Amino acid sequence: MSDTRRRVKVYTLNEDRQWDDRGTGHVSSSYVEELKGMSLLVRAESDGSLLLESKINPNTAYQKQQDTLIVWSEAENYDLALSFQEKAGCDEIWEKICQVQGKDPSVEVTQDLIDESEEERFEDMPETSHLIDLPTCELSKLEEIADLVTSVLSSPIRREKLALALENEGYIKKLLQLFQACEDLENSEGLHHLYEIIRGILFLNKATLFEVMFSDECIMDVVGCLEYDPALAQPKRHREFLTKTAKFKEVIPITDSELRQKIHQTYRVQYIQDIILPTPSVFEENFLSTLTSFIFFNKVEIVSMLQEDEKFLSEVFAQLTDEATDDDKRRELVNFFKEFCAFSQTLQPQNRDAFFKTLAKLGILPALEIVMGMDDLQVRSAATDIFSYLVEFSPSMVREFVMQEAQQSDDDILLINVVIEQMICDTDPELGGAVQLMGLLRTLIDPENMLATTNKTEKSEFLNFFYNHCMHVLTAPLLTNTSEDKCEKDNILGSNKTNTICPDNYQTAQLLALILELLTFCVEHHTYHIKNYIMNKDLLRRVLVLMNSKHTFLALCALRFMRRIIGLKDEFYNRYITKGNLFEPVINALLDNGTRYNLLNSAVVELFEFIRVEDIKSLTAHIVENFYKALESIEYVQTFKGLKTKYEQEKDRQNQKLNSVPSILRSNRFRRDAKALEDDEEMWFNEDDDEEGKAVVIPIEKSKTEDDFPDSYEKFMETKKGTKILNFHIVLTFLVKQSDSLSTTNARIPACLPTCLGKSGQAKESEDKENLPKRTSSGGFKFTFSHSPSAANGTNSANSKSVVAQTTSASSNGSSSKTTNLTASVTATKGSLVGLVDYPDDEEEDEEEESSPRKRPRLGS
């Protein structure tokens, strides 16, 4: 495999001073017998042919540019360049060249002497004389001067000598005098030559020449020369723009004349680089590196001088926040700070830190809070740009400010709430400003850039603040547009859909999509806070209303929000989803989509595929039990059949576990006569009252509104824990107590399991026959348990498939209450483990769901 470090492109300079690509290959340095010395060899990577064979001449000036470029001249009009793919390869070959010439590899130019042709030409001249004679500066010599300037650009040494000659003789000012004469005489040919001369002098890349050319005395004439490009039919009017159109505005009078001069100079030079000069080629970029540096250091100097003038900045802040300041003045002040912050990006990190700390100290954030709430669109836009600089610099600084502010101000005027309101109220149809503000909000609430110290945790403090003071502002448009009242107004007359229809205004849809994107980010990164908020506001139900939007991108955003929640595989979320029947709008959207194969279809199928692959049992059971009939016709993917298979496998496993309990108790060796059983039974219940009086038992005879659904996650987990303890207690009772005393009387054994002990239970024959388990063909007993609210309350439902045995008030030995509670706790969902507690919905909701499980007709159902 070829070494990429040695991979190069070979270029030669043609007669038009343009670089021609001669091919790509791999370079090496080796001794060539024919050339009698070390040479550079480049072989083509395509066929291995020789692209270049050049002897490293001890007197040739090689120049390294941009870390990956080596340029040299082999003859007066034959310049070569190697452009390396990697810096390491360039450094390696550069070291070989320097080794042959006996030079230090740290230099960028290997020779301080002129090439051979120049040496012959000037060999009789004293060393102190200029090596390049400049023609007389007059109109008739302009063409000769232009040719000279253009010819030296390919040779670094000759460029250096020409620059020195121009500097020493004050030649530039003489040329500019000629420009004025040519313009007065309307000498087009001379003006075209002057364009070539001035452009060539800029490419000499010498800071000392720039100081002369960009001085107040010369710069406008330099711009004038660059207007007369020979390639243009008519000259440009750059000077007219700089003097008449571009206006320098002083928001506060600048008394420092040096600072004023720097600001003017920097603007004009930036204009020359960005507007007047053509885009440089890859080999000309290095020619203007000094020009870029010139602008850079000017900006650094301007920022430093302004930053040190605290009186000036204090006055700017005072006027910015003063209510008496008129709108035009405030707009100029904000634009000044915007440009000021943009200049600061050129500073080194240490200087930039000092700059923003100075602004923070002077009160930039309170000032932004005022101007971001103004009606002027330009002011708000500029303030947003300034805010973005601050957030990018230090999110922690902004967070600290808003938390301190919350202790003194109302929620409505908090900086973050002002930002959120600006996002919501963006008038741009494409919401460009809202997108920018949403990105800033995401940066502020991102835990990844929050600091944790020994004394405090910024993450917990700020997130508590955000969810208490700001989240309601962010979600307000979402909750408003998905409320029942709003959606009733937007319902389509005559539609057969009973679900709510979200607003179809495109701009509103765009805004809701942005809010959902931010909320999805919160689900991924804020576990505790967002979970509480979703539960308290029933947020997912409201979000899924948007599945009915005609804007597919908004429906996908709602689906993505739910997908992130399910992706957490949090049983608390799963319980919330199944309890609220929140898959219904998703499945309706899939069915309404019909046979269209689009992104919505794929996203919904992927959601269910994730549940199948991850084997989320609670969601699988809910989907199959409630929606499989509507989904079984979808056969182009195996997702839904796979869910049914998973569900049936799990159901079989639970049935096996359930049936294993009575099978242990069927052994005849535990039988004892009824008299002994009664005595032991009395003793066991007496002990149980003393020892087990504080056992965890789930009463379900209470009001349903109290036990419907736990108010908090902690209560839910505590309830589940209690249920498991109870189930263990029931099974343990059979395994341990029955070895000493066994009876069929229901006073001692929970009512749902009394007759599974065999045929010796004569005392129980008068009990209700519905409480008897059915004997299977293998001789065991089959138990069925109800999951419906009516069964759990002791009523017989006409369509119930299972029965829960109930003990009556006539239960013997006064143990009716204990037995009833134990019985009630052993209810379970269809085919699930004994001991899973069902929290029924409110009675009205249950009746509605039993009669009409789907709120809208489904395709293919």
UniProtKB/TrEMBL annotation:
* Extent of Low complexity compositional bias: 807-823
Q: Name one Pfam family in it.
A: EVH1_PP4R3
Q: Which InterPro entries did the record assign?
A: ARM-type_fold, EVH1_PP4R3, P4R3-like_central_dom, PH-like_dom_sf, PP4R3-like
The chain positions of domain PP4R3 EVH1-like read 5-101
Q: Where is the Serine/threonine-protein phosphatase 4 regulatory subunit 3-like central domain?
A: 144-649
Region of interest (Disordered), ranges: 760-861
Acidic residues bias locations:
839-850
Q: Which domain of life is it from?
A: Eukaryota
Where is this chain compositionally biased, Basic and acidic residues type? Answer: 762-773
Q: In which residue ranges is the amino acid composition biased (Polar residues)?
A: 774-806
Q: Which PANTHER family match?
A: ATP SYNTHASE GAMMA-RELATED, SERINE_THREONINE-PROTEIN PHOSPHATASE 4 REGULATORY SUBUNIT 3B
Q: Which family does it belong to?
A: Belongs to the SMEK family.
Q: What is this protein called?
A: Serine/threonine-protein phosphatase 4 regulatory subunit 3B isoform X1
